[in-house]
Design a protein that fits this description.
By secondary structure, the protein is α/β, with parallel strands linked by helices. The chain has helices at residues 13-24, 60-73, 88-98, 101-106, 124-137, 145-157, and strands at residues 2-8, 30-33, 44-54, 57-58, 77-83, 109-112.
Length: 158
């Protein structure tokens, strides 16, 4: 059996986090972007699911995949992560609001890996909203690589 990382990303931060996570895992995982492929879980004993958060919601391909495969996911060793601009307490709420409680309860690792703003990939409207929020909040998101390392350690230990 092997490990699978599945994710959906809009601008690439979640893809980057998935790749960084894969480098930290003892077993070389398959990585699949749910925007392009729907994997069969049969050959995997460990499944790690990640998604970017926008306006408090995880990417639709992640939510749809979880809903369609919930029973099978409950049988796996599981890790769950999000990527987004929310600070720690808000990120916990986003995890709770986007991953079913029964999956969170059985997951080996659950974490927020932070996020990035890639203004070059955003449209004008998205850039304007982010800049306005950022001026008000005074918060610049960044990837939390130490959380990725700790997440991988939890997956590797079990």
């Amino acid at each position: 059996m092997s490990t699978l990382i599945i994710y959906a990303s809009k601008y690439g931060a979640t893809r980057t986090c998935s790749e960084l996570l894969a480098e930290q895992l003892d077993e070389h995982p398959d990585i699949i972007d749910l925007n392009h492929e729907q994997p069969n879980l049969d050959k995997y004993n460990t499944v790690i699911i990640g998604g970017s958060i926008y306006a408090g919601k995880i990417r639709k391909p992640v939510a749809a995949y979880i809903a369609a495969n919930l029973a099978e996911l409950k049988k796996k060793r599981l890790g769950l992560f999000i990527c987004g601009a929310a600070e720690r307490l808000e990120a916990i709420k986003e995890i709770e609001g986007n991953y079913p409680e029964d999956l969170r309860n059985i997951a080996i690792a659950v974490e927020s890996f932070g996020g990035l703003f890639d203004f070059e990939k955003m449209n004008f409207f998205e850039r304007a909203i982010i800049k306005k929020i950022n001026e008000k909040e005074g918060f610049t998101p960044e990837l939390q690589t130490e959380r990725i390392v700790l997440f991988a350690q939890r997956i590797n230990e079990v």
